[in-house]
Design a protein that fits this description.
There is one protein chain. The protein is an alpha/beta fold. The chain is built from 8 helices and 5 strands; from the N terminus they run E-E-E-H-H-H-E-H-E-H-H-H-H. A 5-stranded mixed β-sheet has the order 3-2-1-4-5, with helices on both faces.
C-alpha cells in the first residue's frame, strides 16, 4: 500500500466556523525512502486569515489572492492520494478540514478515496508516553534536522513527519504499525460513513490547538 504523509495549513482552527484550508502538502514514501513524488498547493480561502494562525504559518491573504480555489485542485489531489494510507500528525484536525472542503463541492469524504488514515500523534504517544510529542520534539528525539522550520509550512512539515515516522518505525520488517484493538477507532480503515464523523475536530482538540497557538505567540519551547 502506498504511504503518503500529509499536512495542511488553515485560516484558523475550526472548519465549523467557516475556516478554510490555505495549503496542502502530501509526500509519498517508497521503500522507506522519501520520494520526489509530491503534491503541494497554496489555496485562496476567500476569507480573512486569523491573526494567531498567520503568526504560526506566516501565509498572508495577499499572497493567496491569485491562487487556485480548492475546487480547482480537488481532482488532482484526490488522484494523488487515491488508494493510499494517509499518515497525518493529529489526523482529526486535517481530516476535518479536508472533509469540509470536499463537502462544499459535493464530493465524498476523504475516507472514501483512501485505504486508511494513520495518526502519527497516537503512535508517538504510544512510544513516548508522558513526553512532548509535537513535531519539533519528535525531530529532536529521532535526530531529524528541523533547522529550517522557523514557521509552520505544510510541505516542510510533511517531509519532516516522513523522516520522523521512519525513525519511529525503524527496525520493523513491515513499515506499518500494528495497534491494539482498542485503538482501531483512531487508525481508520474502511468503515461506514457514520463512524467517520469521529475525525472532525472536537472541542478538546480545538482547545488544544488554541493553547498551542498561545505558546507560539509567547515564543515558548514549542
Amino acid at each position: 500500500m502506498r504511504q503518503v504523509f500529509l499536512d495542511t495549513e488553515t485560516t484558523g482552527l475550526d472548519p465549523k466556523q467557516g475556516h478554510r484550508i490555505i495549503e496542502i502538502a502530501a509526500v509519498e514514501i517508497n521503500n522507506r525512502q522519501l520520494s520526489e513524488n509530491q503534491f503541494h498547493v497554496y489555496l485562496n480561502p476567500e476569507r480573512e486569515i486569523d491573526g494567531a494562525a498567520q503568526e504560526v504559518h506566516g501565509i498572508t491573504l495577499e499572497f493567496l489572492k491569485d491562487k487556485n480555489l480548492f475546487k480547482d485542485i480537488a481532482d488532482e489531489f484526490l488522484n494523488f492520494i487515491q488508494g493510499s494510507e494517509l499518515i497525518i500528525h493529529n489526523a482529526p484536525f486535517d481530516i476535518g478540514f479536508l472533509n469540509m472542503e470536499l463537502g462544499r463541492i459535493g464530493l465524498a469524504k476523504i475516507e472514501e478515496h483512501i485505504e486508511k488514515v494513520t495518526d502519527s500523534l497516537v503512535m508517538a504517544r504510544e512510544l513516548r508516553p508522558g513526553q512532548r510529542n509535537n513535531l519539533d520534539a519528535l525531530c529532536r528525539a529521532f535526530k531529524v534536522d528541523n533547522s529550517k522550520r522557523s514557521q509552520h509550512g505544510a510541505l516542510l512539515d510533511a517531509q519532516l513527519l516522513g523522516e520522523v515516522y521512519l525513525g519511529m518505525t525503524r527496525g520493523q520488517e513491515d513499515i506499518a504499525i500494528n495497534f491494539p484493538q482498542d485503538e482501531k477507532d483512531v487508525i481508520l480503515g474502511a468503515v461506514d460513513h457514520d463512524k467517520m464523523k469521529i475525525v472532525h475536530a472536537n472541542d478538546e482538540e480545538i482547545l488544544s490547538h488554541e493553547a498551542y497557538l498561545e505558546k507560539i505567540q509567547t515564543k515558548s519551547s514549542w
